[in-house]
Design goal:
The complex is a heterodimer of chains A (194) and B (590). With 194 residues, chain A is an alpha/beta fold. Chain A has nine helices and eight strands. In chain A, strands 5-4-6-7-8 form a five-stranded parallel beta sheet, with helices on both faces. A three-stranded antiparallel beta sheet of chain A has the order 1-3-2. In chain A, helix 1 crosses helix 2 and helix 6 packs parallel to helix 7. The two termini of chain A are 18 Å apart. In chain B, strands 2-4-5-7-6 form a five-stranded mixed beta sheet. Chain B has a two-stranded antiparallel ribbon with strand order 1-3. Chain B contains 26 helices and seven strands. Chain B is elongated, with a radius of gyration of 30 Å. Chain B is an alpha+beta fold and 590 residues long. In chain B, helix 9 packs across helix 16 and helix 21 packs parallel to helix 22. Classes of the chains: A alpha/beta (194), B alpha+beta (590).
């Protein structure tokens, strides 16, 4: 488990800007040290944990060290399978929403790194979910990977315009899905469970 | 005269003239009686065949007598007199009501077939004609009149040399070497052999294709002639006639590609039939009755007036009332056709829209469970150590992918993406497609033929879609050809702004009942091998998106041929725009 973080990493975990972290470090709100012989700031895990608790920032991301994924699909069988696979992979923390409405609520609360979004949902269309996420500036780092059983190329283009980062046809190759997720999250695409 | 000049002069003949008696018959006799007289005159037969073929678009002519009422025949006859008597040209033009000269310009070649030196040649013509007619009657494979005509004109090269240089005909015909080496002997006397002369004349005289393909290629095996487009039955009938005469030491020793045995087999002639034919060859040959001499039409002074009168009568009797009626009928016919094609278009469009909606919905409903099936199998595969079970799981995954692929193809057929046009060199598309399918061809033991044009041919099209369409057609051809057969891909430009990509194979074509369904997706009544799945419908659809079409050319007995016909530029496409783009009329005008 990672014990020391840079200001950039701390910013990602807390979902605030790197400037905020530096300011809090410099005014003593966030405890840490500088690398001997240089001015680089470093924050120990315990100090970051305390800082997050003090400021009401959810600490689960720090606790697991895993990337947060929100799976949105009304097909429970598929969701179960994907959850199982992603959890066995070990690099992801997974939550599930079965409708567009639930997805909207959970994005705010859970603040995922990545949404795997089925386009055809029973209530709100996937394109609409993309629009809503992109309309909120505090969610601009969230990546969206759309999946769907529909085939038409022009519809895929529309989704990308609405803010989707990538698209995969159903049925998909699970390894390919994970590779694309890693790509969007800038993680090395090598399975840790291997 | 130089040796080579004889053949050359024969190929320069503007036409072969009918005799005066034939033209008289044409002007005076009822059609059926006139045909009885005309059919013995090679020049008159040529006149009828050529004139009628111009006014009709049939591939073969049946029932010549009825067609003799065609005004074109009489007009053609008048043209002969014009060429014989130049001063009457204006009067003839006036009578015919046209000024463009579609007939022969200079004096046509004329032969008196009754003079002793010409008799052996004429005798051979009549023998071929009679035998061909008999074979056609026995087998019921071809129209007997067509067979007579093709038999009579089989030695066309000989006939032309008779008109151009009669002395060299006699010399060549009496040479003992002719029976052993007919082609070599003819070349020695004339510079060209009779078939070569015939082929040149067939082209310059614009003899209709059904006849030219038979007469011009008698020296080839039936299979090859058939691949060139010749009617296989008629071809074998004429070869049989020529071969039979040869067997009995008669005729002019024309080169034939298939021996009588092979022709008999192809025509399913029984041994008894062949015996009866042998009697026919040995029996006496009647010359047509009537005139004592074969007269030049120009030498009969009143003939021209008679023909003019006949033409005028013809008009007076039939023209005014008939013409109006014919015009009305044509109008109605066209209106009906417009209505029908418009309605067919509309139905087709609705059908495709419905299918597109259905396919989009079905794709979603089917792909979702597929994702679960494939996903679970992938999950199990990752945890499976047993090789046999691994293979089973891989099959499940691959088959799920296959279903997905079929759905994608249905969607491409029902609602293809709008073509992304760019200028492409068609040759590169052809190369690409041939290369992509070469493995399949090797695997199926089918020879893949794709001759390349020597200069770039530009086309405005979506290269990916046109490649897909071509691949569909060529794959269909390879899959339908028998092992050891062939499939070919080549291009033709029937007009400067159109491009035909022609895909042929040596397999059996679709049965008549299947033809109308060939472009229906998943039509289940197909014979094995040809047009499974969505290949042909997809090719058709993508061609339509480009303002073109895919059609099946029904060459009876020939290779199976599909043609992808495209406009070369997007402008032409706009003029004939169809498919889904037609739905919004304002796009057409705006």
């Amino acid at each position: 488990m990672k014990t020391v973080f840079t200001t950039g990493e701390a910013a990602k975990i807390c979902k605030v800007s790197q400037q905020t972290i530096i300011r809090c470090f410099d005014n003593g709100q966030l405890k840490g040290f500088r690398v001997p012989g240089s001015r680089f700031r470093r924050i120990p895990r315990e100090a970051l944990h305390k800082f997050m608790k003090d400021n009401g920032i959810p600490t689960d991301a720090l606790e697991s060290g895993k990337r947060k994924v929100l799976l949105v699909d009304d097909d429970t069988e598929l969701v179960e399978l994907m959850t199982k696979v992603l959890e066995e992979d070990g690099r992801f923390e997974v939550r599930v929403a079965n409708t567009g409405f639930d997805a909207g609520m959970m994005v705010k609360e859970y603040r995922p790194d990545l949404i795997v979004l089925d386009v055809m949902l029973p209530d709100i269309n996937g394109k609409e979910v993309c629009h809503r996420v992109r309309a909120d500036s505090s969610l601009e780092d969230v990546r969206i990977l759309c999946i769907s059983g529909m085939i038409e190329d022009d519809k895929i283009q529309e989704l990308k315009l609405a803010g989707a980062d990538h698209f995969l046809h159903k049925p998909f190759d699970i390894e390919e899905l994970i590779d694309h997720m890693c790509g969007l999250l800038e993680i090395e695409p090598v399975s840790t469970s291997a | 005269m130089r040796v080579s000049a004889v053949g050359e002069a024969a190929t320069q003949l503007p036409w072969l003239s009918p005799c005066a008696a034939s033209l008289l018959a044409l002007a005076r006799m009822p059609a059926a009686a006139a045909w009885e007289r005309l059919r013995h005159d090679p020049g008159a037969v040529l006149l009828v065949v050529r004139r009628v073929a111009r006014s009709l678009s049939t591939t073969a002519i049946s029932f010549f007598p009825a067609l003799l009422r065609e005004p074109a025949i009489l007009e053609g006859a008048l043209r002969f007199l014009t060429s014989e008597l130049p001063e009457s040209r204006a009067a003839v033009d006036e009578a015919i009501g046209q000024t463009t000269d579609s007939g022969p310009g200079t004096v046509a070649g004329f032969v008196d077939w009754y003079q002793p030196a010409m008799r052996p040649i004429y005798h051979a013509c009549l023998l071929y004609a009679r035998l061909a007619q008999r074979v056609a009657e026995m087998t019921g494979s071809s129209d007997p009149d067509n067979a007579w005509v093709a038999g009579l004109l089989a030695p066309l090269g000989w006939l032309a040399v008779c008109a151009a240089n009669p002395q060299s005909v006699t010399a060549c015909q009496e040479d003992a070497a002719l029976a052993q080496d007919s082609v070599g002997t003819q070349q020695r006397y004339w510079g060209l052999d009779q078939a070569a002369i015939a082929r040149r004349l067939l082209r310059s005289w614009q003899v209709p294709r059904w006849l030219a393909l038979v007469v011009g290629h008698l020296g080839l095996p039936g299979e090859v002639a058939q691949s060139l487009g010749a009617d296989p039955d008629l071809f074998h009938v004429v070869q049989m006639a020529v071969g039979l005469a040869q067997q009995h030491g008669q005729g002019l020793y024309l080169a034939v590609g298939d021996p009588p045995g092979a022709c008999a087999a192809a025509l399913r002639l029984t041994a008894r039939d062949q015996e009866r034919l042998a009697h026919e060859v040995a029996g006496p040959l009647e010359f047509p009755e009537a005139p004592q001499s074969w007269e030049r039409p120009g030498s009969v002074p009143l003939l021209r007036d008679l023909l003019l009168l006949a033409a005028e009568n013809h008009r007076l009797r039939e023209a005014p009332s008939l013409e109006q009626l014919e015009r009305d009928r044509d109008e109605l016919h066209h209106a009906l056709e417009r209505l029908r094609t418009g309605e067919a278009e509309r139905l087709q469009r609705l059908k495709l829209q419905g299918l597109a909606e259905f396919a989009a919905g079905a794709a979603h409903e089917i792909n979702n469970p597929l994702a679960v099936i494939s996903g679970q199998a992938q999950y199990l595969l990752g945890h499976e150590g047993d090789a046999g079970r691994q293979k089973s799981l891989q099959t499940i995954i691959a088959q799920a992918q296959r279903i997905h692929q079929v759905l994608s193809e249905v969607m491409q057929y029902a609602r293809p993406p709008r073509p992304q046009r760019q200028m492409v060199d068609v040759r590169s598309l052809l190369r690409e497609v041939t290369l992509a399918l070469s493995d399949l061809a090797v695997e199926r033991q089918v020879q893949l033929i794709s001759p390349e044009a020597d200069h770039p041919i530009q086309l405005s099209a979506d290269p990916r879609q046109i490649s897909t369409a071509l691949e569909c057609l060529l794959r269909n051809a390879i899959e339908a050809a028998p092992a050891g057969g062939w499939a070919s891909l080549r291009l033709e430009m029937p007009a400067p702004e159109r491009l035909d990509l022609i895909v042929e194979d040596s397999g059996t074509g679709p049965a008549p009942a299947q033809i109308q369904h060939m472009f229906d997706p998943f039509y289940s009544g197909r014979q094995a091998g040809r047009g499974r799945g969505l290949g042909l419908p997809t090719a058709w659809r993508l061609a339509r998106e480009h303002g073109g079409e895919v059609r099946f050319d029904n060459l009876s007995g020939g290779p199976t041929r599909f043609v992808l016909s495209l406009p070369r530029s997007a402008d032409n496409h706009a003029a004939g725009m169809n498919g889904l783009t037609l739905v919004t009329p304002e796009r057409m005008t705006g």
